Amino acid sequence: METESLRIFCAVAAELSITQAAARLGRAPSNVTTRIQQLEADLGAGLFVRTAKRIALSPTGEQFLAYAERLLALEDEARQVVSNGASGGVLRIGSMESTAASRLPGVLAAFHVDHPATRLVLRTGPSRQLVEQVRTGALDCAFAALPDDSAELIEMGLQSMPVWVEELLLLLPPGESDVEDARQVRARSLAAFPQGCTYRSLAEHRLGISGDPAWRVQEMNSYHAMIACVAAGACLTVLPASVLALGGAPASLKTLPLGRLDTCLVWRDGFATPAFRAFAERLGVGLEPR
């Protein structure tokens, strides 16, 4: 099983198109097809389901993808450590949508200026999923909002350090400007990210959603969509003040404070490639000497 075959497989899995994966890799489509067929023969299993016009990952392919990404990440980690960072390498960062929007642009831009040879890969998602991806090696580190569960992180073989403190707000729909407490809201619909989002869990607790069958949660994948729904009077949402400050919400909408929560950098115990060490240093996060 060659490393290059794994890279080709991951590219095809991401694009779900031989032609697009070939263009991304700078290879001929026929070469990509051959390498995938050779990999499937080596594994003795089909990795893709092929139809006349499209391809999709098979159940085996979905399972193998996680291993392929981890193998490629381990190879890059070894190259970085052995070369003492001369290879640049890849740093795979996970982040909540809010952090990616309000906190990371300047940090990532400055890091790229200082370390242009390091390729940054950013993925977004809810905190719980991000932490799990760090644990399994799918991500090198992640920015996540976590309740006080340091013991659980230690059991998972993870370390964390607070980087930013976010002021969380409830954004109320028009017509609820008289509301002074979260329990007084009349709307019974919350726009939020999917399960695993710590902000959502906090809002559900403060609003008493789990004990009230009248409540429903509309799952969305962007703050733009959530704010639009609130402005339309359909629901309320929870978001950091730093995101609200970016604009996009009518100034007439009222907010209520929901509390403060740390955004932490999470990484695997002992993980300290040169790229990650440099990134942590820029954030003011100290790592234990290896």
Give a verbal description of the structure.
The radius of gyration is 22 Å and the shape is globular. The chain has helices at about 5-15, 20-25, 30-45, 60-80, 95-100, 105-115, 125-135, 150-155, 200-205, 225-230, 240-245, 275-285, and strands at about 50, 55, 90-95, 120-125, 140-145, 160-170, 190, 215-220, 235-240, 255-270. The longest helix has 24 residues, at about 60-80. The strands form two sheets. It has an eight-stranded mixed β-sheet with strand order 4-3-5-10-6-9-7-8, with helices on both faces. A two-stranded antiparallel ribbon has the order 1-2. It is α/β, with parallel strands linked by helices and about 290 residues long. Helices cover about 45% and strands about 20% of the residues. The protein is built from twelve helices and ten strands. Helix 2 (about 20-25) crosses helix 3 (about 30-45). The protein has three domains: about 5-65, Winged helix-like DNA-binding domain superfamily/Winged helix DNA-binding domain (Arc Repressor Mutant, subunit A, Orthogonal Bundle), CATH 1.10.10; about 75-165 and about 265-285, D-Maltodextrin-Binding Protein, domain 2; about 165-260, Periplasmic binding protein-like II (D-Maltodextrin-Binding Protein, domain 2), CATH 3.40.190.
